Amino acid sequence: MVSVKIYLSGKIIKNWMTKLLEPILIDEPPFLPNEGKVTGEEKFLTPVFSLIASILARVSLGAAVFFIPFSYRFVLYELSIPEIYVDYTNGLLFVADIFLCATLVFWIVDLISRPRKLTLAPLAISIPLFGLLLVSLVSVFVSIVPKISLYHFSRLLILTVLFVYLLNELHDLKVILIPLAASTVIQSIISIIQVLKQKSIGLGLLGELLLDPAWSGVSIVYAQGVRTLRAYGLSDHPNILGGCLAFSLVLLVSWQIMKKRETDGLRIAVILIGMLGLLLTFSRSAWLAFISGLGAVSLILILTRRYREIIKLVNLGLASLIALIPFVVYFAPLLGVRLNQANAFQEVENETRAIEERAALNVAGNEIFVAHALTGVGVGTSPVAMKEQHPVFPYYYQPPHNTLLAAAAETGIFGALFYGLLIFTPWLLIIVRRKKIQFNPAFVAATGALLAVTVVGFFDYYTWLLAPGRFWQFLMWGAWGSFYGSSLKPENND
Predict the structure, then answer these.
(1) Is 180 in contact with 66 (CB distance < 8 Å)?
(2) What percent of the chain has pLDDT over 90?
(3) Which long-range CB contacts under 8 A does 336-341 form with residues at least 24 apart?
(4) How far apart are CA 128 and CA 421, in angstroms?
């Protein structure tokens, strides 16, 4: 009798564990053709709260995406460390963060109102992402500044929940494309005016920084004896703005060329304005990211023989080139300096210093990693660790300008392992499963944008440490994972 009870109890526990772990263990696509969409019958059965919460979550996500580049913030706490830039030590709450949290709150209400199974597929992305979150938590307890690390872990936790939300709920790229288009136009127009006027334009209430090319610390291009202001928009730095514009434009261009309608004047205008804004950031990493992202899209179109889309891309490229030629000619000396014309990297002091600074920061970051290889110095604390390691340093204390190295220095070897998997696994999945992927428009666009974000991480750190870059990184991991699942051929979806 006892053995029968034990057997039955064991069977019940086994069945319960199987049901609990099924969404995690089965590598299923993020959604099946009708899953997560409201059909006529479901519309009748779905609780009103669930429907309202679902709509509010999508609206909040769109608002969060719109505000990604905006530097307007609230200070949650202040932590002053001499010689360290305050944004590396203070706790900050950006407008995008508020809408991001609202998105997740509404989603939780939706889930409570209409319980359903969630997926974490593709597990090749989810597992290393949760691993990175875990080692970031561990790093809080060994951090050289626990308060900073706890703040950054909290951000990573929220973004990880966003990732799960995107896997399960992002079924239409337009949810983020429309706010991205609006943000691109606004940021680009402000940027163009800033560069033409060579100063800030009085939008301090919206978060615009006070800008004057004569001031130390303001990002400029030095050419022919003149300091020229780079485009900031309403962001914290031209490189951040450039990255946001580059990622957005890869998505917007992909959207334009893969739509069935041959022309759309409004979309083309948005793209042209955005490309001018991107040009005026004078951000080399952003330019390279944009080219890389569109290169990936072009390669997929060629390999899948989508000749109509290729022709549309070529036509759009020619139109963009014609529209930008006057500005390229006008700013040719500045572009030449940024692209090493006439050996500018050795001859122009500002460019030489920038290159030497990045090299020195990467060397210092590697030294920090070697000294704290197991657990790192704590997520978010590499600038402080750099100061402790080099009390006398000829440059501003910053994280190393490579996201993988920054992750390694702050979270140790295991953090580097998980982050490295997140960087390279999507491309391995595409190569290994290329015959099983349909390469639908949303997946192609997300693939191009993910590559653009990845490329920036090889040359800068903001996709690892700073709020706008992190948001973009997790946004594209989630979007790519969701559309990867929907792109798998039906016979391979079970």
Answers:
(1) yes
(2) 84
(3) 336/223, 337/221, 337/222, 337/223, 338/221, 338/282, 338/284, 339/284
(4) 6
Q: Is the predicted pLDDT of residue 1 greater than 60, yes or no?
A: no
Q: Do the strands 91-94 and 220-223 form a parallel or antiparallel pair, or are they unpaired?
A: unpaired
Q: Residues 441, 300: contact at Cβ < 8 Å?
A: no
| Residue 326 φ/ψ, nearest 5 degrees | -60, -40
Q: How is the chain split into domains, by residue range? A: 32-117, 174-344
Q: Can you give the chain as a three-state secondary structure string?
A: CHHHHHHHHHHHHHHHHHHHHHHHHCCCCCCCCCCCCCCHHHHHHCCHHHHHHHHHHHHHHHHHHHCCCCCCEEEEECCCCCCCCHHHCCEEEEHHHHHHHHHHHHHHHHHHHCCCCCCCCCHHHHHHHHHHHHHHHHHHHHCCCHHHHHHHHHHHHHHHHHHHHHHHHCCCCHHHHHHHHHHHHHHHHHHHHHHHHCCCCCCHHHCCCCCCCCCCCCCEEEECCEEEECCCCCCCCHHHHHHHHHHHHHHHHHHHHHCCCCCCHHHHHHHHHHHHHHHHHCCHHHHHHHHHHHHHHHHHHHHCCCHHHHHHHHHHHHHHHHHHHHHHHHCHHHHHHHCCHHHHHHHCHHHHHHHHHHHHHHHHHHHHHHHCCCCCCCCCCHHHHHHHHCCCCCCCCCCCCCHHHHHHHHHHHHHHHHHHHHHHHHHHHHHHCHHHECCCHHHHHHHHHHHHHHHHHCCCCCCCCCHHHHHHHHHHHHHHHHHHHHHECHHHCC
Closest among 195, 178, 212 to 277, alpha carbons compared: 195
In the predicted model, what is the mean pLDDT of residues 233-256? 98
Q: What is the pLDDT of residue 480?
A: 98
Which of 161, 182, 61, 59 shows the shortest CA–CA distance to 111? 161
Three-point CA angle 226, 227, 228, nearest 5°: 110
pTM for this prediction: 0.89
Q: Closest by alpha carbon to 237, among 78, 396, 442?
A: 396
- Tell me if 76 sits within 8 A of 92, measured CB to CB: yes
pLDDT at 9: 42
Determine the distance from the C-alpha atom of residue 474 to the mean position of all C-alpha atoms in its chain, rounded to a whole number: 6
Q: Which of 250, 258, 265, 337 is nearest to 295 (CA)?
A: 250
CB atoms within 10 A of CB 178: 14
pLDDT score for 49: 85
**CB neighbour class for 392 (10 Å; exposed up to 12, middle 13-18, buried from 19):** exposed
